[in-house]
Amino acid sequence: MDSIIVTGGGELDGQIPIAGAKNACLTLMPATLLSEEPLTLTNAPRLSDIKTMTELLSSLGAEVSSLQGGKVLAMSSHNLNNHTAHYDIVRKMRASNLVLGPMLARLGHAIVSLPGGCAIGARPMDLHIDALEALGAEIELKDGYLHAQAPGGLKGATHELRFASVGATENTVMAATLAKGTTVLKNAAREPEIVDLVRCLRKMGAQIDGEGTSTITIQGVDRLGGATHQVVTDRIELGTYMLAPAIAGGTVECLGGRIELVQAFCEKLDQCGISVEENEAGLKVSRKNGRIRAVDVVTEVFPGFPTDLQAQMMALLCTADGTSVLEEKIFENRFMHAPELVRMGAEIDVQGGLATVHGVDRLKGAPVMATDLRASVSLILAGLAAEGETIVSRVYHLDRGYEQVVRKFSGVGAKIERVQLK
Ligand code: UD1
User: Where are the beta strands (DSSP E) in 232-322?
Assistant: First the structure.
């Protein structure tokens, strides 16, 4: 099994290109199921989660070609011949549940296994089910599978999500594009990935308003056509690489980055004493001298501080001057990186959804274990500033969400390599 070895020390300098967003791509890909005509995505990230979604769509009869080394995905769903998303594929990745809405809308029925994904909490499907039922679907849980049908087709309705779930918003918006009449989705999620999905659906002929606000209105149409769409920049990859110079020192320019994607995160960096400048190419992040200041962080739905950057932010705060409190409000079990950071000399006290981080002068390299996607990269970030060698094992988690991670970090001067340890 592969591990990553990071040797700490030394400032970083240079540029890192930021890829297209994993989470946007994972909702744009199932949108192909809504149309008989081709959907082409450019700026796709090259990740194992994208391969899993490719496998899932192919199992349903869609054709997915990966072109230009994976940066372009050409898809066609003119010949769907299966409506069951099997557990074998779905268990690898929760985002597999995003085929439910499109299949139900296009075919009138779908069977989708309950998902797996990162071990960061219960992650149920109730919000997706309630919203699709409001559109007239009948959904039953049998043997670990959701059996959904809409014999007379879906019908537009007004529905308010109890929580602004990203996935439930995406599934509902996709389903509503082909429903009869108007759907008004209230308390919708406002994440940039949803805005990106709506822009693509609109190119396919969907009639949607209000993306990026809490109320999305969808006027159903009879059919959707094809489109070509460029995937939005990955704000989580962006935030992660912005933390590299913040932790190790130096200046790094994240190409393709824009403040509007990471506003709440940039405000925290500013409070810590890290400079972020926007220019035409992207975001330039510098840490000059001295220790960073401690800050408190609460994870929230967009536009709040993203839960997917909480682990990486904790890595930064381990060496801050003072005590920081991080509150995780989105997932109930998302501090698994804390005990690993403690192995590196961090002082962290976790009580339920609160982690109190007492800043120390310096971390020390240690063997640590990646527990989920974002936790794994937080350990690499911590290793950049630690004394000596940090060996991060179970890095297959990383391959789900970070393309060419070793090349991107080493390109700005980090001492990092991927090895096969027995
Ligand atoms: C998406 C992102 C993930 C990110 C998360 C929150 C993708 C592929 N993944 O996940 O990286 O961490 O948004 O920004 O885009 N919930 C329910 N019932 C439901 C659905 C969700 O209780 O039916 C709960 C979840 O357990 C969780 C919270 O709502 O506590 C947030 O989940 P949600 O916004 O749905 O996240 P995902 O779409 O799964």
Answer: 250-255, 275-278, 282-287, 297-298
